[in-house]
């Protein structure tokens, strides 16, 4: 007779599990369905509800979204249909750069920009963009002393061009070498975490599975436009490679209270950890409302179960 109460408790536990917490118990995550993309990628009408694609992009629903094939002079793109309006977010992308050539290029990019779905010369995307670009550059043009493949971030103001001749050295916000990210033996991933006005962090996985390498972290993040589109692009020139997107996992982040004692990061390429961002008012009310609903479910379920139990007990006394 306690089934209603147990059901309520089970429901509360399930709902709680849908909201993830970090090791400090302060950061909660909610999946951004509008910017998450996984197999089979397309619906029954061979379209994606949340993403558009173009150029030389091909989609194999059981395996990958291939932005470029291992052929010369290709470019392809994949962009969200709706803008990214979350204040704080985390985007994890599994990708694969691979080919059989001794010489290869050029690379692929992840975008958070005002523009969307515009082909161009910057890893398959238009130049003079406004927003944030993260480039995985596999071909070295002219950057002495830098190991390639190289991962770098650039903040575009809508006017400044990316300089291919020196691999974006003049406009680099932060970056790191990533030798071994091409033809890796483990799933290759990048994870970009952003707290508005607080921190920006890029982590990479390519050496060992579930082992993240910090590329850069800063507590002076760039001013990303309030309304941006999430996208990916790639290009090949005389040299080529396969550039595949396997999955995109986007999450909204918010802080529920308290502050962890974490070190403060340095700017740009510094690898120092960031301090815990402070919670916003909206996040606090959201979490309070969630706990209130869960409490009501548990209390209500317990009351119904107890009432049914007493009623059954009275009936048994009549016999």
UniProtKB/TrEMBL annotation:
Entry keywords, A to Z: Membrane, Signal, Transmembrane, Transmembrane helix
Signal sequence, start to end: 1-17
Presence of the UniProt keyword Secreted in the record: no
Segments of this protein annotated with the region Disordered: 259-280
Stretches assigned to the L-type lectin-like domain: 29-253
A GO biological process held by the record: endoplasmic reticulum to Golgi vesicle-mediated transport
Transmembrane spans: 285-309
Pfam assignment, any one: Lectin_leg-like
Bilayer topology: Single-pass type I membrane protein
This protein's GO CC annotations: COPII-coated ER to Golgi transport vesicle; endoplasmic reticulum membrane; endoplasmic reticulum-Golgi intermediate compartment; Golgi membrane
A molecular-function term among this protein's GO annotations: D-mannose binding
Source organism superkingdom: Eukaryota
InterPro entries to which the protein is assigned, alphabetical: ConA-like_dom_sf, Intracellular_Lectin-GPT, Lectin_leg
Subcellular location field: Membrane
Matches recorded under PANTHER family: RE50040P (PTHR12223:SF45), VESICULAR MANNOSE-BINDING LECTIN (PTHR12223)
Name of this protein: L-type lectin-like domain-containing protein
Native species: Daldinia eschscholtzii
Lineage: Eukaryota, Fungi, Dikarya, Ascomycota, Pezizomycotina
